[in-house]
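Revision sheet: structure tokens.
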Amino acid sequence: MASFCKYHPSQAAHFVCERCDTHLCPECVSLREHKLYNTIKTAHFCPICNIPLQSLGVGHLIAPFWTRLPQFFLYPFKGHALFLIIAMAAVGIFLGNSILFLLFSTVILIKYSYAALTSTAQGRLSPPELGGEMINADISPAFKQLGLIAINAFLFFWIAQSLGQAPALIFLLLAVLGIPAMIMILACSNSVLKAINPLVFVPVIWRVGWPYLLMYFFLILLYGAPSALAYYLFKLLPDFLARFLTMAGQQYYTIMCYNLMGYVLLQYHEVLGYQVNYEDFVSQLPVTKKGCAANNDKPLTEVDILIKEGKFDEALAALQRELQQNSQDKELAGRYYKLLKAGGKQQELINFAPDYLKILLAANDKKTIRQVYKECLKLNGKLPLPAEALYHIAATLNKEGDPQSSLAAYLRITKEHPKHELLPDSYFHIAKLLNERLGKPEQAREILTVLIRKFTNHDIGRAAKAYTEGL
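Predicted:
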């Protein structure tokens, strides 16, 4: 039964924590990379318990086969599958009576269909390509499948001769019912002996349960479809066209049957002991705007989870670790600042404020600069900041329509950094604020007079002189 992420109820869960029994989607897990035999591997950890997660399996993430029957009918019409069907049917019109062609076409069809089965079972839902890799692949699976049918036929006749018709019919019913399971076991194990062993394929049917019988019902319908199609085609169409469509129909339904069996194998791969690579499967999933977040959003999601679970200190620690690796990330820094403020951790907030303001200044986030600076001053009037930061904060406050706070910031430079090279510029801006924004031209004139006297040959002295003349 499908389950959903605890924190994103519309998203299917990919993992479960065996300790806290929390189901999580990929957006909510904590990723850790480690090196194994010179290969970088990614491990998935529970953000709450900090232990490795258990994968729920690929079959948990896909739609049940009975809900996607139209896709099975469309499968042979895609890509190289359609090309193979048309090519083999076209050649079959001219060579259809040749024994060699019949043998060759049967082997090619079974080989391609088997490739479609194994490809689908690995989560690749488009037909395999007719490239060199497929052509040069081991041909033995095709002959092994033919061998399955031959062995079952031989056993049927042997039982009929040795034990009579009734046991033979019972065997035939069991064998026919088990053929799909045998083919899937052959795909898993590549062993004919395992595939025909009732102790192997009967438990497989039992473990899959009623969905196996439903699949078998569809396969029976598909198996009989080519004969029904041929009956009407030869009545209604010219002989050559009817032959072409009949052969194309046989190949079409064969490929569809194997695609269906491959999908059932994918859906129940854990029950059947078939290995599907989770990372390869997930990499093929379509990316949607409402899907799981990108990896660079993961720290924020982990923090959300920890907060929801009441683990406030762990959330702060997680953000702090991430900030050590991404020290200029404004979003991470903003989240860390807000958590410190929400948790009432005033000293940590004051300690972090200079770094956060530096990030905000680099991002030119004027509104947030004003908010953070004033909040921190309210908590601690002696918020230590370098002269450069104070100078830019003062300019930002002035642009944000807060001349009083801007003046206070410039004055802090004159008191806390009296020998800094920005001191003359700070005094000049103080004079301008007093004259232009605060309606105190006389105080402005006094400051400008001092600047002109002390910095006669300096650019700021000449600027002060020119500004004074305009008062």
